[in-house]
Amino acid sequence: MKRTFFTIIFSVILLFNFAFNPEKANATSTTSYKPNITTEEILQKIQKRYPKAQFINNSNAITSVTPFASAPPVTSVDTFLVFSDTGQQNTSGLLSTPLPVAGQTEVYTLIIGYGYNYPYLNDVLIPLGISENYESAFEDIDLDGDSIVDGLLYGVAFNSDDVIPNGGVYKHRAHSYNYPWNTIISTLNITHE
């Protein structure tokens, strides 16, 4: 059971690297999606708020995880970046995208704390991984440079011309694994050309 769980987690990390890092994707990839931004560029944006932030690659530590305490609850959910064929939009703290999107669109959410994550577009749950209309993945992140995971970056990609031709509402709901079992939701109205 543990081996299966760890295999799934490792697969998700690989998926993130292939789905959101074009330099790591090979010619035999099953998706034709080309991301608008790399994880390094996203990290630079996060470092403006958290200067010591770094992505944590847990693929080497999967067999040696030693918990010392309960995971901290979710304290923040921020849908902070939207990229599309029309350009980059910083959406932190906004209720709507400043400009309409078009074509291939990526939405990035920073979650602080540990919990279950449920991204929705127009009240339709977006599955983790590759599905008919979406690609989604996450990457663990350390915000203060101590090499302890503080949260995660969650990315969702889709063709807005097909999925939300008249615009839509993106919601990312995170529910804490532990006490106080709180739920925090980030909502962003995405307008379309």
Tell me what you see in this structure.
- The protein is an alpha+beta fold and 193 residues long.
- It has one domain (2-190): Immunoglobulin-like.
- The chain has 3 helices and 11 strands, in the order H-H-E-E-E-E-E-E-E-E-E-H-E-E.
- The protein has helices spanning 2-20, 39-49, 160-163, and strands spanning 54-55, 76-84, 87-90, 104-112, 115-121, 124-125, 129-130, 134-142, 151-159, 168-176, 183-190.
- The longest helix is centred in the first third of the chain and has 19 residues, at 2-20.
- The protein is globular.
Pattern of helices and strands: HHEEEEEEEEEHEE
In the CATH hierarchy, what is the architecture at level 2?
Answer: Sandwich
Tally the structural domains: 1
The overall pLDDT, averaged over residues, is 81
In percent, how helical is the residue content? 10-25%
Number of strands: 11
CATH topology: Immunoglobulin-like
Count up the helices: 3
* Rg, Å, rounded: 16 Å
Task: Using the alpha-carbon principal axes, give the shape.
Answer: globular
> What portion of residues belong to β-strands?
35-45%
CATH superfamily: Immunoglobulins
Instruction: Specify the oligomeric state.
Output: single chain
Instruction: Provide the structure class.
Output: alpha+beta
Which features characterize this protein?
Immunoglobulin-like, disordered N terminus, alpha+beta, 7-stranded antiparallel β-sheet
Short characterization:
The protein is of the alpha+beta class and 193 residues long. The chain has three helices and eleven strands; from the N terminus they run H-H-E-E-E-E-E-E-E-E-E-H-E-E.
